[in-house]
Amino acid sequence: MRPTGKAKLAGVIGWPVGHSRSPLLHGHWLERYGIDGAYVPLAVEPGCLEAALQGLIALGFRGANVTIPHKEEALRLCHRLTPGAEAIGAANTLIVEADGILGDNSDGFGFLANLEEGAGWNPEGKRCLVLGAGGASRAVIWSLLDGGAAEVLLTNRTASRADSLAEQFGAAACPWEARHSAMDGMDLVVNTTSLGMQGQGPLELSLDALPATAVVTDLVYTPLETELLRAARARGNRTVDGLGMLLHQARPGFAAWFGVEPLVDEALRQAVLG
Ligand code: ATR
User: Which residues of 92-121 are buried (b: 16+ CB within 10 A; e: fewer)?
Assistant: First the structure.
């Protein structure tokens, strides 16, 4: 689109930020919908977030995404928070409003929208096993419980992290060693650990006890089909890869900043995969 001098502005704040796929993603949508806007990487050093957020307001930005290492501090600096951001304890989507910045967390939305799109699955009344208890796990647990899951069972190598998340969210926890038998009766298995990612160790997991009707999903998307998803697909379970979560979590920000509800489709996946 020819420059008009009136572009709506947004971006992604992180350090480092060069690896972020968000500019590709939002850039694809801006082009597709013919929107006069720009979405740029904003490299903000640790310790400079407060100044950067004041800068967003001063420069007339509509808002920004926030990524590592600023998501938790962003929560503290926002003027208002959505209930999801507050519960998850991190803000990844900032919306500049007339009287301050609204902080949202769209990871839980992206997680559920991906399962809905990929498997027609929703958490209402379901039993869910969540592997891992890091930052990504918090959004998954919150969204499952918020969506009406009947049971969320957490398991993590470091038991104390699973126990404290279980207590905070009103979920249950079981020992990491019990993860194989914990599959019994589950409707959903989610990997939120970094295991199975390129360059990381394998996720050792037996799916023998998992019902054939269960859905298996992995937040890892490099590779797109992790060993967990391959093994689940081989035994007939429906699987949903993690790239869709990244794509869907971008929707609320784009809609708020640029005024269009964007679609996640194959063209977007290809654009982001580069
Ligand atoms: P994120 O914010 O992406 O969730 P994180 O907070 O570093 O990242 O969490 C990484 C998750 O992967 C944790 O659940 C971690 O388990 P610990 O809490 O025990 O560290 C899990 N993880 C990483 N390497 C692991 C390994 N070798 N075996 C088991 N779990 C592992």
Answer: bbbbbeeeebbbbbbbbbbbbbbbbebbeb
Identify the DSSP state of 183. Answer: G
Active site residue 71: yes
Distance 195 CA to ligand 1 centre (A): 8
Six-digit token string for 74: 């962003």
Residue 34 tokens read as: 């013919």
Q: In Å, how far are 80, 155, 202 from 97, measured between CA atoms?
A: 10, 39, 44
**Does residue 11 contact residue 61 with C-beta atoms inside 8 Å?**
yes
The helix (H) or strand (E) run that includes residue 56 is helix 49-58
The residues that bridge with 63 in the sheet, in sequence order, are 10, 95
Pocket of ligand 1 (CB under 6 A): 132-137, 156-158, 161, 192-195, 201
Query: What pLDDT shows up at residue 3?
Result: 80
The two three-digit tokens of residue 64, written as one number: 């920004």
The answer to whether 36 and 5 are in contact (CB under 8 A) is no
What span, in angstroms and rounded, lies between the C-alpha atoms of 212 and 208?
Answer: 10
Q: In this model, does residue 65 exceed pLDDT 90?
A: yes
Distance 108 CA to ligand 1 centre (A): 18
Amino acid identity of residue 111, one-letter, is F
Q: Mark out the alpha helices in 96-187 (DSSP H runs).
A: 107-119, 135-146, 159-169
Q: Cα–Cα distances in Å, from 136 out to 142, 163, 265?
A: 10, 16, 23
Task: Report how far apart the first and last C-alpha atoms of the chain are (Å, whole number).
Answer: 21
* pTM of the full structure: 0.97
Catalytic residue among 6, 8, 71, 126: 71
| pLDDT at residue 1 is higher than 90 | no
